[in-house]
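for the recovery benchmark. tokens below, seq after
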């Protein structure tokens, strides 16, 4: 036994090692899957994306207060590594605006922008973020991104757009201010230093904005950001605006990204970067996975979230060691990649190589690129980050999502950025826990056409049978809510002895859920009723079987959707109750009841209740019937349709209504034994005879069901 257990553990470890190795050897799979016919399409797509990526890399590095070459290094390394190790064929990895803003918010707490320490910290942060992503991928935690609501992403992105706008105003106006992610502080400093406004920079920046907006509006296929930067550079060079004080980027170093051997990370710096790294990793993964899923849905590709985590992690680690900063997945560039005809991840690799070529050939031209033009491009980008249409949909559709979105947006603008992001994620997760722990538990009845179940909406329920639909998982966090709701329904409907639980929308049940079902079943059985399950899903049914609850409940109590109501109506519910006490006629089967009974219900004084009458057991009755000396009259008080299906030989059919209305017709000195299906209607009939002074009146204990269970003969007409 011990040897078998050890072998099983070793086999599991071996299987896990193969899976982890597959994550890390993904490039081999990518390269093997590339066909020669794909290369042309991938080259065109890579070039198309590179045209967009080139100005973005410079601009996004500007958001993080990093030199332009750092953005270009990040673009080329991130695109290559993310493409080779990621899961998506179309997701493009590199610098993004939201991640760049988070990088700035994290780095300004440990170093001053423009200093060597700032660049080192940027590399450290990229490696730390990459390690977090890589560990999450190898630990198969890709599912965690599902717990970050879209409302968090929309709120954060809108808040980031506002922050980028405020931070870029100083470059647009050329007012020298220290880098700060705090909106109020920046706006206050801008106002106090408004007299230092540089008009040539402002005019050039506004001109760039107008050009980019017009190109996007009328010629959307052209690379508007790149053309805007080129035009601004040409104007600056031709008019000599740099001599008038317009700030330019200056020369960008040529060549491959230099390897940066990071010094040993001090514990203090590690602690200061940790919170920011978690926030950057969270937003980066949400950006990447949400973009990849959107693209996979459009292209029909199967996406492995864990592999994508690994790819994103390795991309950040690589850029950190090669003079770049944190990467993420860009939806805009990825969509362009897909629309340009990319067929394999090599399109992303080619885009990175094209950036390298552009850097080698065009780097000297950046000497005339005005900083205010970059600010203008970023202001247009920031305006687009506030997705007013999506925000409007959220505000109209969900109060909970609206609060999450608004709180995340305000937190992004007003709080330290890393804490705002983590708070938004935690709020999203908490909302999920609250929602999953309070699944919908609602009473339902058949609709008027008897085709499906719906909430009563003011219509009456069946007095004997409660039907409750559960929508959600029966796990430890939800069972208290479910049980309390069922018990509340039980208290509000004390006459409902039977309960049908519709579980067609329950996809998971744990041990706590089974304990809850057992407690509810026990409660109903103590009252003389029972619980039935309807439309149990296979996974839930397997859990019930493994725990043995299907035997406790009884296989006969686990029904399917097609004949559930019919089965309960004919085998469980009391027909006398249906006929004489229930005017609701909730089920389709109720409609077959005689109309005259519905039109003239029993008077209140004849309500069917429990009566104390002498009972006779089926075995005793059989002995009496077999004794020729005993004089006994059997009176079956069921409806004629019930009587014809099965009855005791020799019994006289006198429906309970006829007995109530024509009591004087029954005059005999014989012993009277009243019979019904389970003994309830017959108890009333016997009690009525006792009230009229009839001696020797008995009720068959357990009714026809007990007679049948004893195996005694029955007659059929």
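predicted aa per position
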């Amino acid at each position: 036994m011990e040897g078998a257990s050890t072998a099983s553990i070793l086999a599991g470890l071996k299987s896990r090692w193969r899976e982890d190795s597959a994550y890390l050897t993904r490039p081999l799979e990518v390269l093997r899957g590339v066909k020669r016919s794909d290369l042309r399409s991938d080259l065109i797509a890579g070039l198309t994306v590179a045209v967009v990526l080139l100005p973005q890399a410079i601009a996004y590095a500007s958001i993080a207060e990093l030199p332009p070459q750092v953005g270009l290094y990040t673009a080329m390394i991130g695109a290559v590594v993310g493409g080779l190790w990621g899961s998506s064929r179309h997701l493009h990895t590199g610098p993004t605006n939201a991640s760049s803003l988070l990088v700035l918010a994290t780095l300004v707490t440990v170093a001053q922008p423009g200093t060597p320490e700032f660049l080192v910290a940027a590399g450290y942060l990229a490696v730390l973020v990459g390690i977090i992503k890589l560990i999450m991928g190898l630990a198969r935690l890709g599912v965690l991104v599902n717990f970050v609501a879209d409302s968090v992403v929309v709120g954060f992105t809108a808040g980031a757009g506002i922050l980028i706008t405020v931070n870029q105003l100083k470059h647009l106006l050329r007012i020298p201010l220290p880098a700060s992610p705090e909106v109020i502080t920046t706006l206050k400093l801008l106002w106090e230093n408004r007299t230092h406004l540089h008009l040539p920079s402002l005019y050039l920046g506004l001109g760039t904005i107008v050009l980019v907006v017009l190109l996007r509006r009328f010629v959307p296929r052209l690379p508007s950001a790149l053309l805007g930067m080129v035009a601004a550079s040409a104007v600056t060079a031709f008019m000599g605006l740099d001599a008038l004080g317009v700030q330019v980027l200056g020369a960008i170093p040529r060549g491959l990204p230099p390897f940066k051997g990071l010094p040993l990370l001090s514990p203090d710096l590690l602690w200061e970067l940790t919170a920011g790294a978690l926030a950057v990793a969270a937003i980066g993964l949400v950006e990447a996975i949400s973009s990849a899923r959107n693209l996979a849905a459009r292209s029909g590709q199967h996406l492995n979230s864990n592999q994508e985590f690994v790819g994103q992690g390795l991309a950040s680690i690589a850029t950190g060691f090669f003079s770049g900063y944190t990467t993420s997945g860009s939806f805009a560039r990825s969509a362009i990649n897909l629309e340009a005809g990319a067929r394999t991840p090599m399109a992303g690799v080619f885009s990175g190589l094209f950036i390298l070529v552009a850097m080698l050939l065009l780097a000297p031209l950046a000497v005339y690129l005005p900083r205010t033009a970059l600010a203008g491009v970023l202001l247009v980008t920031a305006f687009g980050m506030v997705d007013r249409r999506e925000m409007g949909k959220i505000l109209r559709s969900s109060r909970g999502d609206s609060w999450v979105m608004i709180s995340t947006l305000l937190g992004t603008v007003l709080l330290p950025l890393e804490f705002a992001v983590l708070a938004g994620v935690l709020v999203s997760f908490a909302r999920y826990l609250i929602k999953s722990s309070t699944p919908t538990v609602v009473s339902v009845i058949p609709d008027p056409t008897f085709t499906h179940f719906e909430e009563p909406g003011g219509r009456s329920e069946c007095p004997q049978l409660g039907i409750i639909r559960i929508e959600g998982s029966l796990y430890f966090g939800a069972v208290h809510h479910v049980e309390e709701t069922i018990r509340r329904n039980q208290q509000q409907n004390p006459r409902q002895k039977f309960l049908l639980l519709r579980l067609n929308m329950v996809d998971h049940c744990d041990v706590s859920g089974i304990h809850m079902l057992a407690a509810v079943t026990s409660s109903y059985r103590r009252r003389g009723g029972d619980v039935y399950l309807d439309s149990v899903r296979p996974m839930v049914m397997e859990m019930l079987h493994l725990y043995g609850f299907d035997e406790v409940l009884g296989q006969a109590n686990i029904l399917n959707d097609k004949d559930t109501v019919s089965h309960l109506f004919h085998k469980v519910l009391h027909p006398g109750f249906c006929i004489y006490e229930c005017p609701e006629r909730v089920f389709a089967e109720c409609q077959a009841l005689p109309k005259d009974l519905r039109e003239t219900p029993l008077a209140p004084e004849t309500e069917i209740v429990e009566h104390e009458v002498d009972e006779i057991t089926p075995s005793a009755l059989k002995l009496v019937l077999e004794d020729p000396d005993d004089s006994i009259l059997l009176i079956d008080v069921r409806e004629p349709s019930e009587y014809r299906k099965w009855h005791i030989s020799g019994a006289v059919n006198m429906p309970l209504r006829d007995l109530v209305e024509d009591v004087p017709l029954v005059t005999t000195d014989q012993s009277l034994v009243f019979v019904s299906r389970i003994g309830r209607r017959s108890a009333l009939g016997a009690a009525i005879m006792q009230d009229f002074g009839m001696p020797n009146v008995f009720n068959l204990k357990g009714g026809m069901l007990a007679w049948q269970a004893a195996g005694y003969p029955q007659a059929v007409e």
